[in-house]
Design goal:
Blueprint: H1 21-73, E1 80-83, E2 87-90, E3 118-123, E4 126-132, E5 140-146, H2 153-210, H3 212-234, E6 245-247, H4 249-268, E7 275-276, E8 285-287, H5 289-306, E9 313-320, E10 323-330, H6 337-340, H7 351-356, H8 364-374, E11 378-383, E12 389-396
Parallel strand pairs: 7-9
Antiparallel strand pairs: 1-2, 1-5, 3-4, 4-5, 6-8, 9-10, 10-12, 11-12
């Protein structure tokens, strides 16, 4: 009687990024300065800016009235004299902004009153304060040039405040984006780690009863995976760099295959998954043996779940061009061209897998490719002639006589 245990997917659910209360609170703290800045900017522009503008206008009017009073007391202070129907008659005859046909209401654009005795006119040169003559000089205007500021600081303050609020909002956006990216990276790594832990844990339950030595070996492998997770946490949520050591890729495959050997034999018969190796042997692979075993686990688990029920599964080793290569070929339903472009995306599953209702969360193949690529290798998918798929792992080859780990 053979012992049957639940598959790995029964033990672990996919770790998808989620926003819990603590995360939302941290995001709120990041956004708080920007929100406060935007609110204060809105209050300033709506209430304070108009007051500043009014104060600036009142100050300029008071200064202009003071200049007009001095000009009324001493008309010799005038820079030039303007006469209706004649234009500028003395002082600054080149003033084209004061033509002879100006109406008296044009002399005071603020009130547009004809009978105003004094006023000012803002020109590109500055503010000109004027008084109207008396008696025979009633058709004349005595004009004094001043340096009274006609600009309003409210516009400058409003623009600066709005710019600072926009900068705070942009920095908050970057902070939230980096926080969410960090959370996603953490969740992706933990999801992949949980997926990689699931298969050996299930196999260990069987091995403890039937093969204690194999259980010890699996226990050692699990401790190395847990060590990787600890390194991940120590590095602040970054995947630890893979080891660069020579190892026997064929033995790594055997270790990974031993996890599924019984199940493959149940589905394919006693032959299981045959392995071909070159007669002349192969050089050792250069990389991280633990990651290599995990990558092969995931590919074999995928083949067992989706391809083995349809026909044989074979593995073949080869070496060329400075790489050691493992190809796992099946006679399953295959993967369409559109699905093949996304088969290594995290959490993605093919439509055929969804329709069949088989377990899986779309983590294994993505995790396998990330592991292989981190070691300087590649994981490729291509159609198998006659039907099915071929997954090919290529890892850098180490010198043949390099000591193995």
């Amino acid at each position: 009687m053979k012992l049957r245990f639940p598959g790995p997917d029964r033990f672990f659910a996919p770790a998808r990024p989620r926003l819990d209360r603590r995360t939302l609170f941290n995001i709120a703290l990041i956004c708080a300065p920007a929100v406060a800045g935007v609110v204060l900017s809105a209050v300033f522009i709506a209430y304070a800016a108009p007051r500043i503008e009014n104060d600036a206008g009142a100050r300029a009017r008071a200064e202009s009235e003071e200049v007009a009073a001095k000009l009324r007391a001493d008309r010799g202070r005038a820079a030039f004299l303007w006469q209706k129907g004649v234009g500028v008659v003395s002082g600054s005859p080149s003033r084209r902004e004061y033509p002879k046909d100006m109406a008296w209401k044009d002399w005071n654009p603020v009130s547009h009153k004809r009978g105003t005795a004094w006023g000012w006119l803002d020109t590109p040169r500055g503010r000109d304060v004027w008084i109207r003559g008396d008696g025979a000089d009633y058709q004349r205007a005595y004009v004094a040039e001043t340096d009274i500021s006609t600009g309003c600081d409210a516009l400058i303050f409003s623009s600066f405040t709005a710019a600072m609020a926009a900068l705070l909002a942009f920095l908050s956006f970057l902070g939230v984006a980096r926080t969410l990216a960090g959370l996603k990276m953490r969740d992706d790594f933990l999801a992949a780690a949980a997926h990689d832990l699931a298969s050996p844990l299930v196999a260990m339950r069987f091995a403890i009863v039937s093969d204690p030595q194999a259980a010890l070996k699996l226990d050692e492998r699990l401790l190395r995976i847990v060590g990787n997770i600890k390194d991940f946490l120590k590095l602040g949520g970054r995947r630890p760099p893979p080891a660069k050591e020579p190892f026997d890729f064929a033995k790594a495959y055997e270790e990974a295959y031993s996890v599924f050997a019984e199940e493959f034999r149940d589905v394919l018969g006693e032959v299981g998954v045959p392995v071909e190796t070159p007669p002349e042997g192969m050089p050792p692979a250069l990389g991280d043996e633990t990651l290599a075993v995990q990558a092969v686990w995931n590919i074999l688990a995928n083949a067992l779940k989706y391809a083995a029920p349809y026909g044989p599964v074979k593995a073949a080793f080869s070496s060329s061009g400075g790489f050691v290569r493992l190809e796992i070929a099946d006679r399953g339903p295959g993967i369409s061209g559109r699905d093949a472009a996304r088969v290594f995306d995290r959490y993605w599953r093919a439509g055929t897998a969804l329709r069949t209702g088989r377990g899986g969360f779309g983590i294994g193949l993505c995790s396998a490719k990330e592991a292989v690529v981190s070691m300087g290798g590649s994981l490729e998918l291509r159609p198998n002639p006659g039907g099915g798929s071929i997954f090919a792992i290529s890892l850098p080859a180490a010198p043949r006589h390099a000591p193995l780990v």
